[in-house]
Design goal:
Elements: H1 5-42, H2 46-58, H3 64-67, H4 73-82, E1 88-92, H5 98-105, E2 109-114, H6 117-129, E3 136-138, E4 150-155, H7 166-177, E5 180-190, E6 196-201, E7 206-210
Parallel strand pairs: 1-2, 1-4, 2-3, 4-5
Antiparallel strand pairs: 5-6, 6-7
Length: 229
């Protein structure tokens, strides 16, 4: 047994070195890919960029398994703390219906909005198949005039960052605050390496920000405070 220990140590060292090499290479390739996307986006004018975003979003999460996968664990923890059972919710970036369907099944009244008509069509078919109902709208959030007022306006995972340019994002928040009921909230999440959860009140003031960055999609596990609903 003693004679095998150096060989075993060398094997473990080789495996660790190989893992470290390929992990570093994967991170570098991921950064290069994201950088290439940013460069490509920078070559487009605003209208062309919006059209590209809509096309890409229309192709995202189109399998039945993805649509019915439900809320991620951090989303469940978050919504349990910030949503009330009677809330009327506007879900911005509802896409093909993953979080839309999950929230409806939890008993919330949810309206869905997405810029991709193709995604909305699939979400509507999935709702009909499960005998669920929701008001669905096809429009960009920057130009959308929501019917009525809401207790909560939620930007689905990543969707806030899909609004081109900071000024447009800020203007969108100011426009949406007029669509909140008294005590209403705007909720924004981003689940990648710079992950944060932001909560705004009806006056447009940021009232909470929390979360711990993760290392990739779905890896983020925020530390959420407990507070009275």
């Amino acid at each position: 047994m003693l004679g095998t220990e150096p060989v075993s140590c060398r094997m473990r060292g080789w495996r660790h070195a190989t893992f470290a090499f390929f992990s570093s290479a994967a991170r570098a390739l991921d950064l290069a890919a994201r950088g290439s996307v940013h460069l490509a986006a920078g070559a487009l004018d605003r209208q062309a960029l919006r059209e590209a975003i809509t096309r890409n979003w229309g192709e995202f999460s189109r399998t039945e398994a993805a649509i019915l996968s439900g809320l991620m664990s951090w989303e469940t923890s978050w919504y349990e703390r910030v949503l009330r059972p009677t809330d009327h919710i506007l879900l911005v970036g509802c896409g093909t219906g993953r979080d839309l369907i999950a929230l409806i099944k939890l008993g919330y009244r949810v309206d869905g909005l997405d810029s991709s008509g193709r995604a909305i069509d699939l979400a509507r078919r999935m709702l009909e198949r499960d005998s669920l109902t929701a008001a669905l709208h096809t429009a960009s959030i920057e130009k959308f005039a929501p019917p009525g007022r809401f207790d909560a306006i939620i930007f689905s995972w990543f969707c806030y960052g899909y609004i081109p340019e900071m000024d447009a994002r800020v203007a969108t928040l100011h426009n949406l605050k007029a669509r909140l009921k008294p005590g209403g909230r705007i909720l924004i999440s981003d689940g990648y390496a710079n992950a944060r959860i932001l909560e705004y009140n009806a006056a447009g003031k940021r009232v909470r920000e929390w979360g711990t960055p993760g290392t990739g999609p779905g890896a983020w596990q925020p530390t959420l405070p407990t507070f009275a609903k």
